[in-house]
Write a structure and sequence with these properties.
The structure is a homooctamer. Chain A is α/β, with parallel strands linked by helices. In chain A, helix 1 packs across helix 5. The longest helix of chain A has 22 residues. Chains in contact: A-B, A-D, A-H, B-C, B-F, C-D, C-E, D-G, E-F, E-G, F-H, G-H.
Amino acid sequence: MSFTVYLSGEIHTSWREEIQQGAEALGLDITFTSAVTDHAASDAAGDHLGAQEQSFWRDHQSAKVNAIRTKTLIEQSDLVVVRFGDKYKQWNAAFDAGYCAALGKPYVTLHAEDIIHPQVVEILRYTTQA
Amino acid sequence: MSFTVYLSGEIHTSWREEIQQGAEALGLDITFTSAVTDHAASDAAGDHLGAQEQSFWRDHQSAKVNAIRTKTLIEQSDLVVVRFGDKYKQWNAAFDAGYCAALGKPYVTLHAEDIIHPQVVEILRYTTQA
Amino acid sequence: MSFTVYLSGEIHTSWREEIQQGAEALGLDITFTSAVTDHAASDAAGDHLGAQEQSFWRDHQSAKVNAIRTKTLIEQSDLVVVRFGDKYKQWNAAFDAGYCAALGKPYVTLHAEDIIHPQVVEILRYTTQA
Amino acid sequence: MSFTVYLSGEIHTSWREEIQQGAEALGLDITFTSAVTDHAASDAAGDHLGAQEQSFWRDHQSAKVNAIRTKTLIEQSDLVVVRFGDKYKQWNAAFDAGYCAALGKPYVTLHAEDIIHPQVVEILRYTTQA
Amino acid sequence: MSFTVYLSGEIHTSWREEIQQGAEALGLDITFTSAVTDHAASDAAGDHLGAQEQSFWRDHQSAKVNAIRTKTLIEQSDLVVVRFGDKYKQWNAAFDAGYCAALGKPYVTLHAEDIIHPQVVEILRYTTQA
Amino acid sequence: MSFTVYLSGEIHTSWREEIQQGAEALGLDITFTSAVTDHAASDAAGDHLGAQEQSFWRDHQSAKVNAIRTKTLIEQSDLVVVRFGDKYKQWNAAFDAGYCAALGKPYVTLHAEDIIHPQVVEILRYTTQA
Amino acid sequence: MSFTVYLSGEIHTSWREEIQQGAEALGLDITFTSAVTDHAASDAAGDHLGAQEQSFWRDHQSAKVNAIRTKTLIEQSDLVVVRFGDKYKQWNAAFDAGYCAALGKPYVTLHAEDIIHPQVVEILRYTTQA
Amino acid sequence: MSFTVYLSGEIHTSWREEIQQGAEALGLDITFTSAVTDHAASDAAGDHLGAQEQSFWRDHQSAKVNAIRTKTLIEQSDLVVVRFGDKYKQWNAAFDAGYCAALGKPYVTLHAEDIIHPQVVEILRYTTQA
């Protein structure tokens, strides 16, 4: 059983890589996707549509461009894993969780204090077994 | 034109009342709805389903009960106003914004530094004029 | 806040009446609906479309007629309460729960060992407060 | 014509294998899917998210994890075959039937007294003929 | 329980009136709707958009105008009763049945040889009982 | 039969009033809705969210505010009448027509050279007859 | 551009083959699908679920089995071509047209007097050009 | 990440080719689709269904045939780029934008005065990066 998992949220640690490597080590048939996780590139995503002096409109423009990618990938996924970090407000993570809830898309939320990446991999193994 | 507006987010200031009084003063035909904004009652929303020792499951249970109300009210609304405060993480506010985005429900986001409640009322007046 | 609650499942005890009386005592603005709970009438629901000798087709016909009512009422409700009794297989109750899950309709399941009707009423009071 | 069939319900007999072998013998282009049918593994599906002392929450957690798989597979299928056994309450089977009904997904229900697996294969052969 | 029933199909007998009178005699809270059943008016429904010399385009235009009404009424109904007569091809009746099937709208089909209007009324009484 | 008609497009002639008066004269039970048709007010609809120096963002902001109203009203309507004038590009009119097409909402398009308002009224009379 | 076309309706002439051969001759990348067009097999589609003495239930059972196939194929198609013959009532053809209308699926209807298969092929060539 | 982009609107300049060549030069995994952009062929798209003397019906027929293609391609796309030219009324472009808005499909609008095709390519590169 092939499966697509969208990894949402915190971008300052290597949690995405840990889950992907764990899944690979078990030979699971899973495609992982995510937003663009390069922070500076993400903030500048809309700059190609015209430089904006006001930060409000720069953010607005970049959010629109980022949404083209994230909307498509969330809707194509079978499961979304949302990780909240402890340093930032993580509105994007909570926004994605709400987006999933409205679509009826299954999602799991993780918090920084948990060290549960092996467990996430274990659940993916269980879910996608033949 | 009658209209229903769901007021989401920050619960520690009187912004809901300000918008409602402004709309009333103009005689607008608007129904305002929101989650239960009594913080303690909201945290205890699920306790009637059985007391939980672990805070994780207490939160989970209360979130489920609160969602019965918020899901219904957001889906019945014509517009959602989401206000982010400056003290808390406001995941609920961001979650509601994502929920609206996925449903294609119009929503406006406000931030604490803005003093734009008269403007919100002005927009409601414009939107609901005969 | 007005609210519609569909009461699904067990038909051999007075749990529906208990919840309705509790809600009435509190003055809640709730409409309760349910399938036809007269067992014999429910089994005969399709007989007017022509008597059937084979019980399979009699059941089939009655199920179709009953579904006209239950489908409409479940889709119009804001919340579904599903009660499993302890004597019967209760496939209808589980079917209704699955129906709700697929629609994204909020539902609560109760089991016979629980004496939680006052609690259900408490949750309805919380959910529908102004 | 390729086709995907989800086999729901009873897990204590070999009915899934019989249908699959029948379809294979006829060379039908059908993919069969199902929930995880190892009972113990299924009950423990959520344990990786953290051990739970209360059986209620253990069941709840495992049900959530199992739903990630079953929801995806039912929605991807073209037909669901639901088999009720005679020993257990089979709420999962009835739940899946209700889930299909709400989605408008075609489903067939079988009962233990029927020996109709060759017939199911015959119907699959008919349905998928070029 | 109030209920809306759309009566589709045959327009050359008084079957609509018989069902409506039967429902009224029982005091059922049912609204009956239907397409415009005046045959000549129905064929001319689009003529106000400009007279058409070719009957193909006259029919096309009238079909479009009639669809404004029927689409709205079918979607607003809780049940559709489709009656096939014995004299005409009744494509409209079959079209409406297909329309209902795709929407998941409950519908009942009747044929000319049946004298089942009292039965239809009986089913409506059963379905809408309190 | 009550009915809601959204009148989209050209705002420089009195076509809306003509249709409304015609419907009123016939005593039809129709509610007419439309975007805000005061051109200056419409262009300024977003100004309350903050004055914008760049006309691009002023337009963008006003379009968002106007969409709150038009989206709600189009989705609540049973029929949309779209009138193209001869002086302006009428992108809003064409946008609304595309919006209707995607929703499966019935719509009629009128062009400036046509003097067909009495005909539109005639069609409304036909469509909403008892 | 690849494309899937469902051919619905009349089964007593070779119109399906003519369109398929025309498309093949032009090298169009089109997959054609249809219901099972062997009349006797189609009427017996449900017999494997148990022989029925009453023709009503035999028809009902076969219709259910046939619908598994046709529902799947219509929903997977990009275009439906519905051909009405001149000998039969063709309720299935009209039913499929109504089904398409409710789904917003594009469909074309043909009648027996037309000799337009080369034209249908021409339209398919146009529609699927790179 | 593979991606499908529908290019809507203006057909008298080479903007489509410029974007496609830019994407190709960067090795992006993007499929570009569009309506038939040969103006004369597009106007004649419906002529194979029968020549029409009245231009109204010729246009109507061709629009229907063109819609088979555009509807399918817009719904299959992940992003729609709509370009308005400066010479024509561009109702098709605005119609497509409204169609996207109603579907919740992401779209970007370009105007003739902008020379932003390299920027569009830049955004596509950003959106589809691994």
